[in-house]
Write a structure and sequence with these properties.
The complex is a heterodimer. Chain A is α/β, with parallel strands linked by helices. Chain A contains 13 helices and 14 strands. The chains are: A alpha/beta, B mainly alpha.
């Protein structure tokens, strides 16, 4: 299939290890490609290169074979864009804005725009400045989608949308996908990407660490179950059977097993004869996949010690953040407590001081009053 | 290269700013031109000017009085000389002065077979004899007690030959009496001619008036000479001073009365009124004449005699300087009595065009630039840097619109809006000038058009500069801080520089403040040159235009090549 967007060794160094470094990726026609990564990892910078707003320091990026920097105007004939930061031109309301935008696009037929407005339940007559974040996002989406061009570049398009609207938006994206459009979107939400994308790139510190194929993740070929037994005996008996045990928690009579899809029936036949407290599937999804990738990456980087101290610290932080829910939860919680309590202690001390001061002042005033009373008496 | 949609968008975004800047400036301008024009703001200046003119006139009058006084006394001296000269000296004088003319006429007769020369021939002979004889007389006049410069000699000889033609005589026949009469009459004729010329030179005098005052002067001097009686012993001019005072003041009074009476009649006053008014003036002039001569005499006495009243022994030079000083004191006007620097300052104040100062230097260069400048700074920023900073530029650039199209369109909007603003201002100011009296007014139409053109070009330069800053920077704070900051700085420098510029009268001027004018490009908007009608403002306007064009171009090219955080 034809490649629509091709990045070759795309580099933009902002110094201090910020920017993007040697990005390589290809987006095929009709493909939905996702970008995921932490804040400041380089998603927006990459998108700005595609839009021709930034000039690559090294390497190149082409859209439909056209250089994104040199032929940026030509490319815009095929590209529609929802920017990450929503700031509208200085115009009165949404309708005026959409009309102005249509005029710039040379768009005369507003049928599709009206369809989008209905679909997203947008009231475009609202004042642009007074719009909520979600409203602004919807307006931006309409203004981009209404031209109905072949390529969609979306920078975190679902931020600010409520969960229901997010679903509608995903629906809309799937509609566009069905039309055969090529879509590049960045997002913070793994679920959203998993629902829409064919492939997702993980960007980390300006480098693409991994490109995941969603289909492969979904068809991983095995499942993971967590099982807790009511009887200790059953638990011990089950352990003797030849199932692949990933995790064993004796204290609670719990096991986590990994089982190939073809052996599922065997498992459930076995379990018929056991008394279970619960059984739950631990789903394997994009989030988990990338966590694994990140952890591996971290280990690799630490071993090779390729990065400078500064960036290592950053890497550690990210990993800590990723793992805090699972492994270092308690530790972190303790730390957090200490951290959050510190200012509290300080505040308390301050308050005490204030109270003392106030007491002193009150005393002074009282003394003065007494003196005056006495003086008055003397007089 | 141009996007209509974007242009419309810019208009929608900036029309409020444009309207408020335009309206407020138009209102200010109308107020300045109409209201100040009708307030008679130049009244003080006019009255100051009147004081100086009056002082000049008075001092002229006083000089005149003292001149007449001198002539009066020297005429008596001349009469004395004429009466005491011996026959030999007359003989010499005849030989020196008259004989060449008589010879020339004789020669003409011989050449023309005894025919008498007619008027034109006589005039030719006269001219040639004057030409040859004047240098001789100016050199050798001393031998007969007369001294002339070359010019004076020419005038004297011309007059003398004219007089001689009226009453010719031969050298054998009572030469002394005839010569004395000839010289006397010539002298009186000269006095008449001089007085006539002087009177006619004065403003507003008719030839009848000139004739009257010249005749009066001649009568005066003739009277003075007639009154001379052979004194016992040496001639003493002090004996005639009292007569001189009385006669001159009377003559001045008569002449003034005659002049003003005729003027008032000419202006349509009734006989009675004209008589009364002319009388008032005549008496005032008589008093001034009287005072002047008295002051002169008192000063002269004070300077040339000692405490007991005996005359001091003075050299000619000392005597001359005493006379000059006495004359100066007697003719001193109000302006001579104040300190020279103050007098200069006052005179400058009298000549200053307050109206021009307020309209040209203060309104057009400062107040009238402020609102357009605020508009330019804000608009230039919002056209590019503001949209890049907020990110709204992304919507324009995500459509098939080139960056060059964006910058060219925004520049066009900037220039068109400024042009419209100043077109309205020009119309307002032309109407205001028309209401205030058109070209007869302190500022004429061509000046007002140049003022507006200059203001437009100044703002064009600022628009280019702020536009360039807006194109160079991605952040509003830098675009506003540098573009706006430098623009406002220029305006403030112009305000400070005003106190050092030559439009402000020297009494209020601080020369060091002129330094600020070198820091501001508004200095190129040369309103002084416009008001004085010189063309040096035009090349300065050219520079402003070039600055604007250059900065716009730099901005446009730079914007094409830079990274945009959108």
């Amino acid at each position: 299939m034809e490649s629509i967007i091709v990045a070759k060794d795309l580099t933009k160094d902002y110094g201090e290890n910020r920017g993007i470094f040697g990005l390589n990726f290809e987006i095929k026609k009709g493909e939905v490609f996702g970008f995921v990564g932490t804040n400041g990892s380089g998603k927006t910078t990459t998108i700005r290169h595609i839009m021709g707003f930034l000039k690559p320091q090294k390497g190149s990026i082409t859209v439909m074979g056209l250089d994104a920097w040199k032929d940026s105007c030509e490319i815009k004939k095929y590209v529609e864009y929802v920017p990450g930061e929503i700031a509208f031109p200085d115009l009165v309301d949404g309708t005026t804005f959409l009309k102005a935008q249509a005029e710039l696009l040379g768009l005369e037929n507003m049928d599709y725009a009206n369809y989008l407005v209905d679909k997203l339940q947008l009231d475009p007559s609202a004042n642009l400045k007074r719009m909520s974040k979600g409203m602004k996002q919807k307006t931006a989406i309409v203004s981009a989608f209404m031209a109905d061009k072949d390529i969609l570049i979306l920078d975190e398009p679902s931020t600010g949308l409520d969960p229901l609207m997010r679903e509608t938006f995903v629906e809309l994206l799937l509609e566009e996908k069905a039309k055969g459009k090529t879509i590049l979107m960045s997002s913070q939400s793994f679920d959203e990407l998993e629902d829409v994308c064919d492939r997702v790139a993980l960007i980390f510190n300006g480098r693409i660490i991994d490109i995941a194929n969603i289909k492969e993740i979904h068809n991983i070929g095995y499942k993971t179950y967590k099982i807790e037994f009511l009887d200790r005996e059953d638990y011990l008996k089950f352990k003797k059977l030849k199932y692949e045990i990933v995790r064993d928690q004796e204290k609670y009579s719990q096991v986590t097993i990994k089982i190939e899809d073809k052996n599922l029936n065997r498992l459930f036949n076995t379990l018929k004869n056991y008394k279970l407290k619960f059984i739950s599937e631990i789903k394997y999804n994009l989030e988990k996949y990338f966590k694994d990738v990140l952890a591996r990456e971290y280990q690799k980087q630490e071993k090779e010690n390729k990065l400078e101290n500064m960036s290592l610290r950053k890497v550690r932080k990210v990993i800590k953040h990723e793992h805090k829910k699972v492994e270092k939860k308690e530790n972190l919680e303790e730390k957090n407590e200490k951290f959050f309590n510190k200012p509290k202690v300080k505040a308390e001390k301050k308050e005490n001081k204030m109270h003392k001061k106030e007491d002193k002042q009150v005393k002074k005033i009282l003394k003065k009053d007494k003196k005056q009373v006495e003086e008055d008496k003397d007089v | 290269m141009f996007s209509k949609a974007l242009f419309k968008q810019s208009m929608k975004a900036n029309w409020v700013k444009w309207l408020s800047a335009t309206l407020s400036t138009c209102i200010m301008l109308a107020i300045v031109i109409i209201v100040l024009g009708n307030l008679g703001i130049n009244n003080i200046r006019d009255s100051l000017k009147a004081v100086f003119t009056q002082a000049d006139q008075q001092s002229y009058l006083k000089e005149n009085v003292l001149d007449s006084y001198d002539i009066y006394l020297s005429s008596v001296g001349l009469e004395n000389t004429l009466q005491t000269m011996d026959a030999g000296t007359y003989q010499t004088a005849y030989g020196l002065i008259v004989a060449p003319y008589v010879d020339a006429i004789d020669q003409y007769r011989q050449e023309n077979d005894g025919a008498e020369p007619d008027e034109t021939a006589l005039a030719e002979i006269r001219a040639s004899v004057v030409e040859t004889n004047a240098p001789l007389l100016s050199l050798g006049g001393g031998t007969i007690g007369m001294s002339f410069t070359l010019e004076e000699a020419k005038m004297f000889l011309n007059e003398l030959y004219l007089t001689y033609d009226q009453n010719r005589f031969t050298p054998d026949d009572q030469l002394s009496t005839n010569m004395a009469n000839l010289l006397r009459t010539t002298y009186l004729n000269l006095i008449y001619t001089n007085a006539y010329a002087q009177a006619q030179g004065q403003q507003g005098s008719t030839s009848a008036q000139a004739e009257y005052s010249a005749t009066k002067m001649r009568e005066l001097i003739a009277g003075a000479m007639d009154s001379y009686q052979t004194p016992e012993g040496e001639f003493d001019e002090s004996l005639y001073k009292a007569d001189a005072l009385a006669n001159i003041t009377t003559m001045m009074r008569d002449v003034t009365y005659y002049t003003y009476y005729n003027q008032y009649i000419g202006l349509g006053f009734s006989n009675e009124d004209a008589n009364q008014k002319a009388n008032e003036y005549a008496i005032a002039v008589k008093v001034i004449a009287d005072t002047t001569i008295n002051t002169y005499e008192l000063w002269l006495a004070e300077l040339t005699t000692d405490e007991s009243g005996a005359p001091l022994e003075l050299t000619d030079e000392e005597m001359q300087s005493a006379i000059t000083q006495a004359r100066d004191e007697a003719t001193a006007s109000i302006t001579d009595q104040i300190d020279s620097e103050v007098a200069v300052a006052l005179e400058e104040l009298g000549n200053m065009d307050i109206y021009g100062l307020i309209v040209g230097a203060i309104f057009f260069r400062i107040a009238g630039l402020l609102m357009p400048m605020v508009f330019v700074i804000m608009t230039a920023n919002s056209l590019l840097a503001g949209q890049v900073d907020s990110g709204s530029m992304a919507y324009v650039l995500s459509t098939p619109t080139k960056r060059r199209t964006v910058t060219v369109t925004q520049m066009t909007y900037m220039i068109v809006s400024l042009f419209a603003m100043f077109a309205l201002l020009t119309i307002t100011s032309v109407i205001a000038v028309f209401i205030s009296g058109g070209n007869a007014f302190a500022i004429n139409y061509s000046e007002i058009l140049l003022f507006n053109l200059g203001a437009f070009l100044t703002m064009f330069a600022f628009a280019g500069f702020t536009f360039m800053c807006s194109a160079l920077f991605n952040r509003t704070k830098y675009s506003m801080g540098i573009g706006g900051g430098i623009s406002i700085f220029s305006l403030v420098c112009t305000i400070l520089g005003l106190f050092g510029s030559t439009i402000v009268p020297s009494a209020m001027r601080i020369n060091a403040m002129n330094f600020f004018n070198y820091l501001s490009i508004i200095t190129l908007y040369d309103t002084v040159s416009i008001m004085s009608g010189s063309l040096s403002c035009l090349w300065k306007f050219g520079i402003l235009l070039l600055i604007g064009i250059a900065t716009f171009i730099v901005g446009i090219f730079r914007f094409d090549k830079k990274d945009l955080p959108l």
